[in-house]
Write a structure and sequence with these properties.
- This protein is mostly helical.
- The protein has one domain.
- The protein is built from five helices and no strands.
- It has helices at about 10-30, 35-40, 45-75, 75-95, 100-110.
- Helix 4 runs antiparallel to helix 5.
- The radius of gyration is 16 Å and the shape is elongated.
């Protein structure tokens, strides 16, 4: 069964709200875990805070790039690429073995 979001306005609004809520959720839910992650890997909280800071840097920078790409190629392919990249990088973050991998995967997640 194929769902047409353009015809179902309520579902379209929910979809847009969920997409809009993804960046704040990816930071706010993560904040509470920072001390536990630092303790688990026996590193300073400052190292784990880099995952948050660099996420914001990547997110802010790539908004400019993906905005231009969406103007050129359309919003749908860029949105699908971004969502797929976000989901894959979220799984990679969950599988990170050390803080440096987590930093790299959080940068990918910010992109």
């Amino acid at each position: 069964m194929k769902i047409n979001l353009e015809k179902n306005k309520a579902l379209f609004i929910v979809f847009l709200a969920l997409i809009g809520a993804t960046p704040p959720l990816s930071t706010d839910m993560y904040l509470a875990a920072i001390p536990l992650i630092a303790e688990t890997w026996n590193v300073g909280v400052d190292v784990i805070n880099l995952t948050l800071v660099l996420w914001f840097v990547a997110f802010s920078f790539f908004i400019l790039i993906f905005g231009s790409l969406s103007d050129k190629y359309g919003r749908k392919p860029v949105l699908i690429f971004g969502l797929v990249m976000f989901v894959i990088s979220s799984f990679l973050c969950a599988m990170a073995q050390n803080p440096f991998q987590l930093i790299a995967f959080r940068i990918l997640q910010g992109i």
